[in-house]
Each structure stands twice: as C-alpha cells, then as structure tokens.
Amino acid sequence: RTTFSNREEDDLHFLNVMEELLLQQDLDGLMKDHNVCTCRRCKADVCALALTALPSKYVVISRTSLSPVLNYYENKFKIAMLTELNKACAIVRETPHHSR
User: What is the pTM of this model?
Assistant: First the structure.
C-alpha cells in the first residue's frame, strides 16, 4: 500500500494521455504535408477528429511519473495516432469550417 504525503497528493491530477501525446506531435508539419490550412480552427478540428477516433486513456499521475507513462502509451499508440491524424487532415482539407 502506498501512502502519499499531502505535498504529493497536491501534485496528483488526471490526464488524458492521448490528448497530451497528440499535442506533442508536429501538427503544423503534418498539416502542411497534407496541404491543410494551419489556422487555429483547422488545427482544433484536426485534433478533435483524431481524438474522437482514438481511445481515451485517462490516468492519475504526478509530475514525476509523467514521462514514463507518456513514453509507454506513445510506443503503444503511435501508429494509431498517426493514422487518425492523417484521416483527420484529409477530412479538414476537404471540408474546412471556413472559406479558403
């Protein structure tokens, strides 16, 4: 059984690992490679579409354990994440929520 001091408990929070990993990707580069507008709205649409298709992975975590958890999930879901980002780019390129 693990006992946390008050200081450590204050450092705990929940996190959607998939969202964190997605935001660490080179979205601008990926979107430019797919000839997608890189405005804030289009970036948000690409992220939302990709995250909707990916499984949510919520964890309770402290700052000190963030890196190993992210590395584990990145290795496990890298291909799925890139696949969904590519699909999302295609959708946003074809139907942006603004005029070009």
Answer: 0.82
